[in-house]
Queue: 3 jobs
Job 1
Amino acid sequence: MIKRIVFDIMLLWGLFLLPWWGAMILAVLGMFLFRKFWEAIVIAFLIDSFFSISESGFWGRFGIFTAGAIVLFFIIKFIKSKIRFLSKE
C-alpha cells in the first residue's frame, strides 16, 4: 500500500514536472505494476485538461488521452490475466 501511495505522489509530481508523454509513461508503468490502477485514468483526464488544445481535427479534441487510458487499462488487465506470474486475482 505504501508503494502505491509513493508511486501516486511521483505520478502527480510527474504530471506537473514532466511533459505529457512522461506522465503517460509513468501511468502505463503503474498499470503494469499495480492491480486496478484507476489513478492512470484520472491522470489521463488531468493531462487532457492541462494539455489539450481545441482544434477542428480529431487529435485536438478533449478526452483523447482519457479514452486511450480507459482502453489501455482494460487491455493491460486482460494481458495480466493471461500471464501467470502477473495474475493475482
Note: Residues 2-82 form one domain.
Job 2
Amino acid sequence: MHRPVHRDGLAGEPGPRALVGTATETAGYQLITRQFWPRLIDSGKPELVFQGWLLTSVCVVAMVSLILVIGELALGWRRAARR
C-alpha cells in the first residue's frame, strides 16, 4: 500500500526512524560510557586520553545532530498533520 508523501518529502509515519534513532542514541551512549571513558580517558596514557576525548566528541556531535534531525522531522509531521 502506498503511503502519502507530503510536500516536504516526509512519509506519513515516523515508525522505522524512531526505532533507528533510539538504537543509534543508545549505542552512542554505551560507546561513551563503556568504551571511550573507562578504557581510553581513564587509562592515563596521553595518546589514549586524546583518542578517548576525540572519539567522545565525535560521538556526542553525531548524537546531537541526530536529535536535531528528529526534532526537525517531528516539526514537519506536526505541520503536515495540521493541513
Note: The mean pLDDT is 85.
Job 3
Amino acid sequence: MAKELGTRVLIGNKPPEDYLVIAAKILRQYNEVYLLARGRNISKAVEVLERLKKELYGLKYEIETGTETLEGPDGNPKYVSFIKIHVYRERGGVFVPRIHR
C-alpha cells in the first residue's frame, strides 16, 4: 500500500484512495498525520486532504510548501516543488465519521 513512516504518508503514483485509507488509519491511531508529496503528486495530496475533511469531523490542518534542489541525472541541479500537510485533531475535539445518506 502507501509508503508509511510513523505518522507520515509519502504520496506517490498510486490512486488517492490508497493514501486516504492509510491516512485515516493513522489519524485514528495517533490523532495526526503528515501528507508529503513532490511535483505532480502535490494535487493528489491536496485531494487526500479534502476527502479526509469531507469524511471526518474535527480536523485541523497546516500546509507548508516550498522548493527542493535535487541533483539531476546529468549532475545539474533540478528544482522540485513539495507540499507538507499536517492534519491533526485538537485535544478534546470530536472525531467521528460522517454518515452518508
Note: The two ends are 29 Å apart (CA to CA).
